[in-house]
Amino acid sequence: MKDSIVSVNTLLELLQRRIRSGRVRVREENGDIILTPIAIADTIGTEQKPKRQLGFLPGSLPESFFDPLPEEELQLWGL
Question: Is 52 exposed, middle or buried (CB count within 10 Å of its CB: 0-12, 13-18, 19+)?
């Protein structure tokens, strides 16, 4: 009997720590207390990450790179 009391107390302490840390949500529904675990992914990574910068390789493309391809080139590609 004493072992089961210790186990219950340990479980309650663990649950209280998780509630305080925000890893378990507590809500009431129809007079019952509902405990909902929160995924770790929901609590981690909420800060904004910096946007990635393009152009990390040296060099640049000339504006003519974006011009439409000539008809002969399109035919070689089957387009």
Answer: exposed
